[in-house]
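Sanity check. The docking grid for NAP depends on where the pocket ends up, so I'm generating a full predicted complex first rather than guessing from homology. Inputs follow.
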Amino acid sequence: MQKIIGTGLSGLVGSRIKELLSDRFEFVDFSLDSGVNILDKENLATAFEKNKDAVTILHLAAFTDTNAAWEQKGDKSDICYQLNVEGTRNILNLAQKYNQQLIYISTDFVFDGTKITPYIETDTPNPIEWYGETKYLGEKVILDSGYQNYNISRITYPYRAKFEPKVDIIRKVLTKLQNNEPVKMFSDQICTYTFVDDIAQSLGYFIENKSTGIYHLVGSSSHSPYEMCLEIAKVFNLNKDLISQSSLEEFIKSQPEGSRPWQKKLITSNQKAKDLGLNFKTLAEGLEKIKNQLNYGK
Ligand SMILES: NC(=O)c1ccc[n+]([C@@H]2O[C@H](COP(=O)([O-])OP(=O)(O)OC[C@H]3O[C@@H](n4cnc5c(N)ncnc54)[C@H](OP(=O)(O)O)[C@@H]3O)[C@@H](O)[C@H]2O)c1
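Predicted complex below; grid placement will be based on this.
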């Protein structure tokens, strides 16, 4: 079986990738729990040397709390920059040394959210908050190095049926509606929600086909958070009267100066990945899958 080094395999996205692809690849988990800290160059170099027969390194480890990241804005010594930029640099250097395919998982937060038409892979990023900026700087570390055996896969709002350690936005809303609690969400923001299983299958394809370049692995429909709630109520047959609208515009106005900026419209095109034959569900289709995986209502 092809050996894959993975970072961040204990996280929301990584753990599902491992779950779904373990019958095709042997994953070697580089995590703090398994004794590998990607910020410790010596420790990381030893771990790579032991696994130099791996063909691919799938790099998901990151500082992902966007609000906490904003508190660190501009501070290169803090954990967000260190992990997302310097951690990525450490990984890149060793992937280059052993000529391994480097798949770096990035985000649509590299964009500013002002484009009217969907963002495509050749659009120039312009991050507006610190998490997105550090993820983009991670992309730049790879692109500026000139290393050719890279793949940057940008994902957006990943959701899955189950994962106790971290609750995604879809499960947060689902739980509230199931508990008959009210939900108020922005109707003037647009996001692209992505079923994690589609991300996992696409990455399996990239590993097997040694695909390089930048790709958007994202859902096939985009919605306001308010519409997303209504879709959940519809698919799971829950009370839509619990859902009400609020405004991102108004929310931003109510925030003190210097607060974290928000992207207003993040529609990301998955056409390039679809042209390879990869499939991405719409939100309604993804929710149906989750409903089945949860045996909901059966
Ligand atoms: N979740 C989203 O909404 C979203 C959206 C777009 C893009 N992404 C990207 O997708 C990737 C995965 O996100 P996620 O939400 O699955 O992440 P997550 O659940 O927050 O998990 C983060 C992972 O990073 C690992 N990690 C942290 N510090 C480390 C270190 N020093 N050395 C080694 N590993 C370390 C953690 O391992 P431990 O468990 O050992 O701490 C954990 O596995 C990230 O690159 C993120 O930027 C996520």
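Relevant for the grid: The pocket of NAP is lined by residues 7-8, 10-14, 31-33, 37-39, 60-62, 64, 83, 105, 107, 135, 155-158, 166 (CB under 6 Å).
Also worth noting: Residues 79-97 form the longest helix (19 residues).
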